[in-house]
Design goal:
Layout: E1 8-12, H1 17-28, E2 32-37, H2 40-52, E3 57-61, H3 67-81, E4 86-89, H4 104-132, E5 136-141, H5 154-174, E6 179-186, H6 192-205, H7 209-217, H8 229-240, E7 249-253
Parallel strand pairs: 1-2, 1-4, 2-3, 4-5, 5-6, 6-7
Helix pairs in contact: 1-2, 1-8, 3-4, 4-5, 6-7
Bound molecules: nicotinamide-adenine-dinucleotide (NAD).
Nicotinamide-adenine-dinucleotide binds at residues 12-13, 15-19, 37-39, 62-65, 90-93, 113, 141, 143, 186, 188-189, 191-194.
Length: 260
Amino acid sequence: MEFMPGKVALVTGAASGLGRGCAIKLAKKGVNVVIADVNVEAAEKVASEIKVLGGSAFVVEMDVTSEESVEAGIRRCVEVYGSIDILVSNAGIQIVHPIEEFPFEEWKKMMAIHADGAFLTSRAAYRYMKESGKGGKIIFMGSAHSHVGSKLKSPYCFAKHGLLGLCRVLAKEGAEYGIHTYVVCPGFVKTPLVEKQIPEQSEALGISEEEVIKNVMLKDTVDGIFTTVEDIANAVYYLTEDSGAMTGQSIVLSHGWHMN
Ligand code: NAD
């Protein structure tokens, strides 16, 4: 595998949607990228796309809910590329139900991916960043739902709010080692995760799919416009270049849905 003289990033959930967009953006900027995902077939396609663009990438099969899988994936990143300078902890799913109908098993599945996944990936990357003496950037994929609540999304909002706390703690613990941490908070972006939610919310709320988009998803934006994958990838790239001035903070890209 060709190694470029730039930094090294591992992006979880990079086989699709926002993770894919971030991985491609970083690769275009000369970053060596590890595509970490449970969906190896789709991950390989992203790695091929990056190679066609002249970048460097390889795939690790990683389930962010498994300590063993996360440790092995990050170890492999360091073995192959010699380092991990950037972690984008992005893998995620969505399950929606009203609270009184939320099955405990589904709540636990959400926690395993969003909360355990954030902990396991950031802890593993943090250890290497500290040990290397070079520090690094840990970027969590939060959401506008890190700041606001929405009907049907109790575990998602719980976990996405929790990322703000984890990020703040790691910013304090990591400062002396040059480790900087951030939460990127997108509004709705049309990725496979959101495409799936439209009919589900339509059914749960008893309204049409058009109404879900207009009156639920984009209702509180200032202009009724979806955030894009490019918006998020650009923000992630920007944070990889931050001096540390923004450490411990979140950045919201939601067309004014949440303003802070
Ligand atoms: P997506 O469904 O397009 O992609 C998610 C990726 O995560 C997939 O490739 C999937 O295989 C992978 N994944 C799922 N479970 C995994 C696991 N256990 N281990 C490793 N990989 C796993 O979704 P997306 O919209 O790109 O979402 C990515 C992140 O962005 C999520 O954390 C999501 O909550 C967040 N987010 C999305 C939106 C949006 O509107 N799309 C808005 C705010 C935040």
